[in-house]
Amino acid sequence: MNIPKLQISRKALIGIFAIAVAVTVWILLLTDTPRLAIFWLFGLAFGVVVQRSRFCFVSAISNFVLFRDGRLIKGILGGLFISTIGFAVIMFREIPQPAFGVPSTAYIAPFGWHLVLAGIMFGFGMVLASGCIMGTLYRIGEGAVISLIALLGLVIGMSVLQHNLPWWNAYISQRSVVWLPQHIGWIGALVLTFGIVAILYWLVMRYEIHGAKGKCKLTFPLSSASFSALFKTVFIKGWALVLGGILLGGFNIWLFASVQRPYGLTGEIMRWTQITLDAIRLPAAPLGTVPGS
What we know:
Elements: H1 10-32, H2 34-53, H3 57-67, H4 71-94, H5 113-128, H6 133-141, H7 145-163, H8 165-172, H9 180-207, H10 227-235, H11 241-259, H12 266-279
Helix pairs in contact: 1-2, 2-11, 3-4, 4-9, 4-11, 6-7, 7-12
């Protein structure tokens, strides 16, 4: 009688080991620092979603402009739709009457020309780097050496910023802050936001190339489904981009409701930069609380 041998690939073994390490770290953090344990779980969820769905804000724009592929933009709009609902509920519970002020847990960036300048510089740099910050990070995890160079450039740029941060903060703090519910009420802000999201979604649908068969589909087998097929669907095949956006929006709401901190990448990279500057004895001004970290 021949007994079939169970064969496990090297990649599967590495994956099992990585999961075991992640669970071990979570247990250790849960014992000593429960708040960090929450960040660890949500960070893992963020990484899995963006890697599986290939989520990237810069690629969303470049793919649409260059190839008229609007799937990533639709994913972002799906995430914005879900996030708008969730954060409106959270902020409404804190400030039912928005005319009286801005929620203390909200961070609203002052509006000004600096946002336009930053957007242009960031977009240009990320196009050269072939992706945004989140794309750079998950590509490093996949073994892309060029993304390490992009990350090094980010750290160098952040170093320059931190040595000029007091000047920027002095300028930015004088700019006006626009919080829509304070000006047009909760209903007006929601209607306006949903209207803009709907119009953008329609425009993307109108001008993208239709009929292109994408590879990012998340379909679960319904008949005679084996564990192997389910495993490949979740961990090997790409996920739908809209699903990625919705999951990220939902996780962001859950994270903020749990610890009053949203997902963020820039703030944490600034923190890494601070540690690097201290290590090479080029200390910059302390960051304090970095929004989005």
